[in-house]
Amino acid sequence: MAAKIIVNILLIITLGIAQISFISGWSAPYSDLNLVLVILIFILGFASFNLAVWWSFGVGFILEIFFFLPFGAYLISLILTIIIANFLLDYFFTNRSLYSFLALVALATAASELIINFMAYIFIEANRYFFPVEPAFWLSLLEQIGLNLLLTFFIYYLVHFFGRNLRPVFLMKIKK
Question: What is the domain partition of the chain in residue ranges?
Answer without folding.
Answer: 2-163
